[in-house]
Write a structure and sequence with these properties.
Blueprint lengths: L3 H15 L4 E6 L12 H5 L4 E7 L2 E6 L3 E6 L4 E6 L21 E7 L4 E6 L5 E6 L23 H8 L6 H6 L9 H11 L12 H29 L33 E5 L2 E5 L6
Antiparallel strand pairs: 1-6, 2-3, 3-4, 4-8, 5-7, 6-7, 9-10
Helix pairs in contact: 1-6, 3-6, 5-6
The protein binds a DNA duplex through helix 5.
DNA sequence: CTCAGCTCCTGCGGGC
DNA sequence: TGCCCGCAGGAGCTGA
């Protein structure tokens, strides 16, 4: 489900609920999701205070008073619900629009003050892990990540160099978390559309200038999406991974058959499949 | 090393 | 109504 903007939205929702609060109880309802949970997960969480909530790429990192960091990955369908003390009282109660989804509530944390956090993941591609905070950047899931797209290490010169010699389509290159960390299918489609670059173009055959033009496009689309996610958070006060209002602003993703919205372009958004995943683009203005 | 294809899992919507 | 198919926002693993 979530790409960087959705994960950041979840982090921003969780931070005020978790930071400074002690985890009073951890209920782990299955052995793991994509991978087995770390040994003694419940015991290692119980009694710990969350110092700070961070994000790296599509991972949320909770630094705990024990000196360990809890790493969350939401996979395709992961979400986190925040239930206040005065919300639905019993585990498994109707806290979803579709109550049967509650059967995928895999982990539940009860915090000091009574707030409950529920990690729900229908498809179970998500993950939780614990590792020592000082070495968290060396965690196998984090060690090979490229720069943050909203950070200083991501600029035109970097991206042009990262693309050099690559024979893979630029669509696949931007999805490669080692090149830039946090993009997914939606925002790659949107950034390519904004820059007029075909998803089929080989990364290594883009001019340096065109490669560099992707940087502000990526930064802008991510920033706009985070802002839209934040607005939906205020309304629903949930940190679940739903797309915020930004989904109504997609110009390419999911718009097959619709008119291209670029100024002066009379083309039509088309869906193709690249390495097993949908790409939406305008063959007229994206070359 | 690079790259394409497969895989994990469940639910939903469309066509018949 | 039921069945089958394709599709879904991720990303690690395998083998060429």
């Amino acid at each position: 489900m979530p790409e960087l903007p959705e994960v950041e939205t979840v982090r921003r929702g969780l931070a005020p609920a978790m930071e400074g609060k002690t985890i009073l109880r951890a209920e782990i309802r299955r052995d793991g999701l994509r991978w087995p949970f770390p040994p003694r997960l419940a015991e290692r969480l119980t009694g710990q205070r969350t110092l700070v909530m961070r994000r790296r790429a599509k991972y949320i990192l909770s630094d705990l008073s024990s000196g360990e960091t809890l790493l969350w990955h939401l996979g395709m369908s992961g979400r986190v619900l925040i239930l206040d003390g005065d919300g639905p009282a019993q585990p498994g109660s109707f806290h979803y629009a579709h109550p049967h989804l509650a059967k995928h509530d895999h982990v539940e944390l009860t915090l000091e003050g009574g707030t409950r956090l529920i990690f729900n993941d229908v498809r179970r591609f998500g993950a939780l892990d614990l590792a020592p905070t000082p070495r968290i950047d060396d965690h196998p899931l984090l060690a090979n990540l490229g720069p943050e797209p909203l950070g200083n290490g991501f600029d035109g010169a970097y991206l042009a160099a990262a693309f050099a010699g690559r024979n893979t389509p630029v669509k696949a290159a931007l999805l490669d978390q080692r090149i830039v960390a946090g993009l997914g299918n939606i925002y790659v489609c949107e950034a390519l559309h904004r820059t007029g670059i075909s998803p089929k173009r080989k990364a290594g055959r883009l001019s340096a200038a065109r490669a560099a033009s992707l940087v502000p496009a990526i930064r802008n689309v991510l920033t706009e999406a985070i802002e839209a996610g934040g607005s939906s958070l205020r309304d629903y006060r949930q940190a679940d991974g739903e797309l915020g209002y930004f989904q109504h602003r997609f110009q390419a993703y999911g718009r097959a058959g619709k008119a291209c919205t670029q100024d002066g372009c009379s083309g039509q958004i088309t869906r193709i499949v690249q390495s097993g995943r949908s790409s939406f683009y305008c063959p007229t203005c994206q070359r």
